[in-house]
Amino acid sequence: MKDEEVLERIRKGDETALQYLYKKHYKMMLHLVLKNSGSEVEAQDVFQDALVLFWEKVQKPDFTLTAKITTFLYSICQNLWRKELAKKQRLSFEEKDEAISEDWERTERIRAIQACIGKLGESCRKILQLYYFDNLSMQDIAEKLGLANADTAKSKKYKCKKELDDLVKKYFKATDFLD
């Protein structure tokens, strides 16, 4: 088909013109995207978007084709792909910034809790350390610290945890720990 015939078919709403353009120009657009850090799926998306834009432009009464359809479609694809690459790059930077921010916030939260743990008495620090960080059972904690039994260790751990919670609430707001 010649360019004028393709334009005429599109103006009449004949979708076979799109199928023709897809078959004729897809490989060229695929090459454009692949050589510029894209995938085949991305090339398909970009080319389909380009065809939709081309269809819409041709439908406008004041549209005049000033170059070959191939050239026009290529420039549409090129512009769409550039926008997609810019968007991908922006997202990549945003994801890195977000990851750095999350790491920093996590580190700050850990420091805040460690500061509060440092304000606890020695026995509370030991009990919480053994339970939460060393993963010892209440029975093991009781034996290690010379407490009467597991229930005594459990009761002491509960009081120490409550004391830690109170310290955290005293020095920090809930929003310091909630996203």
The second-level CATH architecture of the largest domain is: Orthogonal Bundle
CATH class of the largest domain, anyone?
Answer: Mainly Alpha
Oligomer: single chain
The coarse overall form would be rod-shaped
Number of strands: 0
Radius of gyration: 33 Å
The assigned structural class equals mainly alpha
Which regions contain 5 or more consecutive residues with pLDDT less than 50?
Answer: none
Q: What would the CATH topology of the largest domain be?
A: Rna Polymerase Sigma Factor, Chain: A
| Element pattern in H and E | HHHHHHH
Mean pLDDT value = 85
Structural domain tally: 2
DSSP strand content:
under 5%
Helix content range of the residues, please?
over 70%
Q: How far apart, in Å, are the first and last alpha carbons?
A: 59 Å
Largest sheet composition = none
CATH superfamily of the largest domain, by name, is: RNA polymerase sigma factor, region 2, helix turn helix motif
Put simply, the count of helices is: 7
Identify the notable features of this structure and list them briefly.
0% strand; mainly alpha; 2 domains; 179 residues; 7 helices; rod-shaped
Structure description:
With 179 residues, this protein is mostly helical. It folds into 2 domains: 3-93, RNA polymerase sigma factor, region 2, helix turn helix motif (Rna Polymerase Sigma Factor, Chain: A, Orthogonal Bundle); 119-176, Orthogonal Bundle (Arc Repressor Mutant, subunit A). The protein contains 7 helices and no strands. The protein has helices at 3-11, 16-34, 40-59, 69-118, 122-133, 138-145, 150-171. The longest helix is centred in the middle third of the chain and has 50 residues, at 69-118. The protein starts with a helix and ends in an 8-residue tail after the last helix.
